[in-house]
Each structure stands twice: as structure tokens, then as C-alpha cells.
């Protein structure tokens, strides 16, 4: 069977990234999974936000870590994308898990701790995932090798090393960190990584795959997951591989 389709920050080509409209659209478009980013506010509330700075997608400058959740909740994270989404609010992890709880979706939470060393981010996210009883369908990923090592000691939830760095022993390296899955940038997708991950029974997922040619290649190689901004396009192409 061809790999699962992960809606990258939701259906982020069709709605503002990491917002409820993007998640709702991904669900309506029948994505198999949703990938989203988790950071902490000044008062340690986990929120879904990609950049460490607010500038690109909000009406305010500064850093996510320097605002309280109450302050963040007043920001507009939709109008940068389209006037249709004016006053779309920041989503908390709690709100997202409440929404996804009764939906048959796999959840990929990327911990954004490779640039900001959020203290206790792993503990806070794990506690919430367990509270909502979605651990069996959750993947925790990070570009931060130290975070992967911490997670390996804390939980049996699937943990994925995210990387864009080329190295011959990538699968083995991920294993030494305690990762149980590997999420690689598309340009790293090579025969040896596919073969190594399959041999070691380590799920291999590829990001961020939007072009038809790239999607075809990922499905042809039977990658376990494709992380994409265009889940509707990915589903059409995946259907070509169904028998």
C-alpha cells in the first residue's frame, strides 16, 4: 500500500498554515494525517506555530516565546494569506487535540525546539497527548537530536528524527538517538535510504512534497508517508498506484 498523506501544517496551500481552517480543509480533503508545529508561549501553553518569530504570519512583530497565550490569542494569523481569513486566531494544542479527538487522523506534532530550547516542551506535549488518549496515533518529530534522545527515554510514542542533512548512515544515526522513524527532506530520498529504512523496519516519510513528479517518485518508492501542502493533489496521484 502506498504511503499516508500528511497535510503539512494542514492544507496550507489552500488556507493559512497551522490554523483551524487549514486543518478542517485537510480533513474534508481526506488527508490521512495532519502535521503541525508546537511551540510554547511565555506562560508555557503549547501553541501551533511554525516560525519562532511572529512577523511573517501575524499582525505583530516579536517572538512566540515572549508573549503569553492571552496575548497571542488576540493576533490575526489569517489575513496575511487572504482577506477571507481575517481574524483567524492562533490555535492551542489543547484546541487542536479537542478537535481531532473524534476524527480518524494520524497526528504528527513537530516540536520546534531546534532554534529555541523550550524547557519542558516534551513533558508538556506528552502529558497533553496522553490526556486526550491519542498516543497510539501520534508521531512526535524534531530536528533537535537531543530532543529525540530525551523523548526516547520518556515515551513509547513513535518519535521521528527530522533532517535535511545528507549522511550515509542516516538510518543508523537515527536509531542511535532512539528515533523510531525518519522524516527526510525530499532531496535526500535515495535508494540506499529507502532500502536501509525498510531493512531496519523504520518508517520513512518525506517532506515537503508538492510537485507531481516528486509525489509520483515518493509513491513509486513506497515511502511510508508524504508530507505535503496539497493533500488533494497527493490523493489524486496516489490513486494511480492503487490496485
How would you describe the overall organization of this protein?
This protein has 243 residues and is an alpha/beta fold. The chain has a single domain (4-241), classed as Phosphatidylinositol (PI) phosphodiesterase (TIM Barrel, Alpha-Beta Barrel). 31% of the residues lie in helices and 20% in strands. The protein has nine helices and ten strands. It has helices at 20-28, 69-72, 93-100, 121-131, 145-154, 170-177, 191-199, 212-220, 231-238, and strands spanning 4-8, 33-40, 46-48, 91-92, 106-111, 138-142, 158-163, 181-185, 204-207, 225-228. It has an eight-stranded parallel β-barrel, surrounded by seven helices. Strand 6 (138-142), helix 5 and strand 7 form a beta-alpha-beta unit. Helix 8 (212-220) crosses helix 9 (231-238). The model has no long low-confidence stretch (mean pLDDT 97).
Content-based structural category: alpha/beta
Secondary structure tally, helices: 9
What would CATH call the architecture? Alpha-Beta Barrel
Number of domains: 1
The CATH class assignment is Alpha Beta
Helix content bin: 25-40%
Radius of gyration: 17 Å
SSE string, helices as H and strands as E: EHEEHEHEHEHEHEHEHEH
Major sheet size, sense and barrel closure: 8 strands, parallel, barrel
Please identify the oligomeric state.
single chain
Shape designation: globular
- The CATH topology corresponds to TIM Barrel
How much of the residues is beta strand, in percent? 15-25%
On the 0-100 scale, what is the average pLDDT? 97
Please provide a brief summary of the model.
With 243 residues, the chain is of the alpha/beta class.
Amino acid at each position: 500500500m502506498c504511503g499516508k498523506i500528511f497535510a503539512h501544517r494542514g492544507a496550507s496551500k489552500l488556507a493559512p498554515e497551522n490554523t483551524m481552517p487549514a486543518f478542517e480543509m485537510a480533513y474534508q480533503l481526506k488527508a490521512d494525517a495532519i502535521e503541525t508545529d508546537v511551540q510554547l508561549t511565555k506562560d508555557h501553553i503549547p501553541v501551533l506555530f511554525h516560525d519562532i518569530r511572529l512577523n511573517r504570519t501575524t499582525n505583530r512583530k516579536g517572538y512566540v516565546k515572549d508573549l503569553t497565550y492571552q496575548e497571542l490569542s488576540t493576533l490575526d494569523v489569517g489575513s496575511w494569506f487572504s482577506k477571507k481569513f481575517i481574524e483567524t486566531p492562533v490555535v492551542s494544542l489543547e484546541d487542536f487535540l479537542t478537535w481531532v479527538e473524534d476524527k480518524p487522523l494520524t497526528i504528527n506534532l513537530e516540536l520546534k525546539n531546534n532554534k529555541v530550547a523550550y524547557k519542558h516542551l516534551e513533558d508538556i506535549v506528552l502529558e497533553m497527548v496522553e490526556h486526550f488518549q491519542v498516543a497510539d496515533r501520534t508521531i512526535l518529530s524534531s530536528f533537535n537530536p537531543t530532543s529525540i534522545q530525551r523523548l526516547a527515554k520518556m515515551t513509547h510514542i513513535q518519535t521521528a528524527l527530522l533532517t535535511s542533512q545528507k549522511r550515509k548512515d542516516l538510518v543508523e544515526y537515527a536509531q542511535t538517538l532512539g528515533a523510531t522513524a525518519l522524516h527526510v527532506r525530499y532531496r535526500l530520498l535515495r535508494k540506499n535510504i529507502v532500502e536501509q529504512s525498510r531493512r531496519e523496519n523504520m518508517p520513512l516519510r518525506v517532506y515537503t512534497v508538492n510537485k507531481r513528479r516528486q509525489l509520483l517518485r515518493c509513491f513509486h518508492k513506497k515511502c511510508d508517508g508524504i508530507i505535503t501542502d496539497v493533500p488533494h493533489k497527493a490523493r489524486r496521484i496516489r490513486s494511480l498506484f492503487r490496485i
